[in-house]
Amino acid sequence: MIRIENLVKSYGKHQVLKGVNIEVKEGEVYGFIGQNGAGKSTTMNILAGLIGFQKGRCLINGKDIQNINNRANNYVGYLPEDPKFYPYMNALEYLEFIGSMRGDSKKQIIEKSERMLDMVKLTKAAKRAIGGYSRGMKQRLGIAVAIYNDPKLLLLDEPSSALDPEGRRDVVDIISALKSQGKTIFLSTHILNDIERVCDRVGILSNGQIVLEENIHQLMKKYVQPVYDIEFNRPINEDQFKILSGADYVEKVNINDSTVNIWIKDFERNSSKLVKLISELNIPIISMNLRRNSLEEIFLKVVK
Amino acid sequence: MNGFNSFKAFIKKEIMEGMRTKKFLVPAIGVLFFAFSDPLMIKLLPEILKSQMQGTDFSMLIELSQRAALESYTKNLFQLSTLIIVLSMMGIISKERTDKTLSIPVSMGCSVNGMVLAKLLVYGAFLLLINVMGMLIAYWYSGVIFGFTYGSFAAAVVSGAVYGIFFVFVLSFLILISSFSKKSFLAAAVTVLLVYLMPLVNNFAAIKRYLPINLLTEANYFADLLSKNLAVSLICTIALIVIFGVLSVFKLERIEFV
Lengths: 304, 258
Known about the structure:
The structure holds two protein chains of two kinds. By secondary structure, chain A is of the alpha/beta class. Chain A is 37% helix and 29% strand. The radius of gyration of chain A is 25 Å and the shape is elongated. By secondary structure, chain B is mainly alpha-helical. Chain B has one domain. Chain B is built from eleven helices and no strands. In chain B, helix 1 packs across helix 6 and helix 10 runs antiparallel to helix 11. Chain B starts with a helix and ends in a 6-residue tail after the last helix. The model of chain B has no long low-confidence stretch (mean pLDDT 91). The interface between A and B is medium-sized, with 31 and 28 residues.
C-alpha cells in the first residue's frame, strides 16, 4: 500500500529525512515512532501530498506521488497532528464542506456526517461552533474528517495526543474497528502503549532514518529478557536453591526472601522445563512473571 | 474530486465566512458610509465653517451641487474605502496559510483553482454589489439634497459597477501577493501601495487607457454609456484579473500547506 524508497527531505541546509525506507502492506497497522523532531510529521505530510521532497520515491497504492497532480487523495484520509478547522463552522457544517468538495449529495452528506460524528462521540456538540471545541474534541473531529471518505489508507499523526484516557481508549477502539474493516493505517504516536495494542508492525525513525522495523510481536519477543520473577508463599531453602541453580539451562538465580529471579539460557526451548522444575519444588506460588521490556524501553535502547 | 466540486464547496464556505466573520460587514460600512455622509457633509460644511469664521459666506467658495457631492464620494471611495477593503480582506489567502486551515482540504484533494476562483467570485460579486449600491445611494441622496442636476441613475449604476470592477482588480492583486507571502499585512501594504501609486501613470497618456486606474477616471465622468476608452480599460483590467488569478493558482499549487 505504501512504499517509501530512500526518501530525502531538507529544509534549507537541514536534512530532516536522510533516506527513509518504509513498506506498509495492505490491511496493516504500521506504528511509526520517533523522538520529537525526528521527521515523523514531515513523512506524514509528504504521504498526504501536502509537501514535496528532494530525493527518493513515494508510492501509495502503486501511484508515485512526486507529481503534484498524482496525489493519492481519493483513497487517503489524513489526520494532522494539530488539525485546524474554520472556527465559525460547526462540526456538521465542516463535514458538509468536506462532503460537497467530494461531490456527495445532500442526503449522503447528512447520513455520513451523522455516522462519523456518532463514531467519534461528537453528536451532542455537532451544532456548536468548532472555535469553542477543546483540543480533544478537535482531534475527534479530525478523525471523523479523515475517515469521511471511507479511505483505504489512513495517515494518523498523533491521533490521541490531546485526549484524556477515556478518549484515548476510544481512539484505539476506532483504530481497531478500522483495522478489522481491512483499512491500512499508518499511525504516528508518542503513546507507545497504543502502538502495542493495535499495531502489526513498528518502525522507529531516528536521526532521519528508519533504525528498526519489525513485526511488533517479534520485536517484543526479540527484546524479551529471559528472566522469570517468581514469588513463593514462603522463602525457599538451601536444597531447593541447589535444585534450581543446578539445572544446566539455568544461568543465574537470585533470592530475595520469598522472591526468586531466575535467568535461563535459550528462553524458548527451556521455559517449559523451568516451569516443570518449579512445580517439582512443591512450594505454593503467588505469582510468576516473565520479565519483558516495554516498547518504550526498546525504543529508548534503539534510539540511544 | 474535481475542481467544480471544490469551487461549489468554497463558494458556500466563503459566503458563510463573510457573514460570520464580518468580512462583508466592514467593507460594506466602509463604502456605504461615505455614500450617506459625503452629500450631507457637503451640505453642512458651509454652515460648520460659518460658525467658526463669522461673516464669511462659504457657500460662494464651496460648490454645493450633486456633482460636488459625487466627486467627494468617489474621492473617498478611492482613498479611504480602498484602505478599508484591503485591510478587511488582507487575510483572504494569507490567513488560511498561517492558520493552516487548508491542510485538511488540500490533503483530501481540494482543487486550488476552484478555491481561488470561489474567493474571487464571492468577494468580487460582493464588491461589485456594494459599489453599485453605494453609488446609487450617493446619487439619490445627493439628488435629494441638491437636486438631480448631474448624471442619471443609469450613469450611477455604470459608474458603481466600474468602481466595483476596479476593486475586484485590487482583490485579485491582493490574492496574488498573498500567494507569495504568508504575511497578510505585507500583502495589504503592497496592494495599498500599488493602488495609491497608480494615479502617477495618469502622466503617461499613451498607456493610461490600458491601465485599471483609468477605470476610475472614466467612471467619474458619470456617463450613461461606455466610452471607447472605458471599454479598453475594462478589457485590460479583466485580463489582468484573469492573469493574476492564474498566477495565484500556479503559485499556490506549488506551496506547502502545512
